[in-house]
Amino acid sequence: MNAHKIVTFIKYTLVATVGLTCDMTTLFMLVEYAHFPILLATALAFMVAVIVNFNLHKRWTFHDTSHNLKRQFTAFFVISIMNFVLTLVFMFIFVDLVHLWYVLAKIITATLVLIFSYIMNRLWTFKKIHVKGKTF
């Protein structure tokens, strides 16, 4: 992995942390102050985090200038759903089958999902497309 990819991965990790903070803050505010049901608040907080993460990754992590927002956001959202499913699968495996402590299982899971998410978004969502000498 070259220096540029390492810096990009570090940025990706920082943005993921910002996204988690947005998710948790939104969830807390909706439940505690707006009195939303927890599941509805969780879904809304997830959407806020996806939107924040997408925008930060597009502009800061990957410096993407393409205007194909619909395709990119759709890809990003699909990967976010895949991340959620992978989290459930890994947590089941590590906690129920391997019998790891759930906190350790979550740390391992979060690391694996972060790597998967980074690779998928770099190769699919924010992939540079070259056509006739132009980069999109």
Indicate the topology.
Layout: H1 3-32, H2 38-61, H3 69-97, H4 102-125, E1 130-131, E2 134-135
Helix pairs in contact: 1-2, 3-4
Question: How would you describe this structure to a colleague?
Answer:
By secondary structure, the chain is mainly alpha-helical. The chain has one domain. It is built from four helices and two strands; from the N terminus they run H-H-H-H-E-E. A two-stranded antiparallel sheet has the order 1-2. Strand 1 and strand 2 form a beta hairpin. The longest helix has 30 residues. The radius of gyration is 17 Å and the shape is globular.
Average pLDDT taken over every residue: 93
| Main sheet summary | 2 strands, antiparallel
- The low-pLDDT segments are none
Task: Give the overall form.
Answer: globular
**What number of domains?**
1
Share of residues in helices: over 70%
Please report which band the strand proportion falls in: under 5%, 5-15%, 15-25%, 25-35%, 35-45% or over 45%: under 5%
Element order, helices and strands? HHHHEE
Number of strands: 2
Class per helix and strand makeup: mainly alpha
Helices, by number, come to 4
Query: Rg to the nearest angstrom?
Result: 17 Å
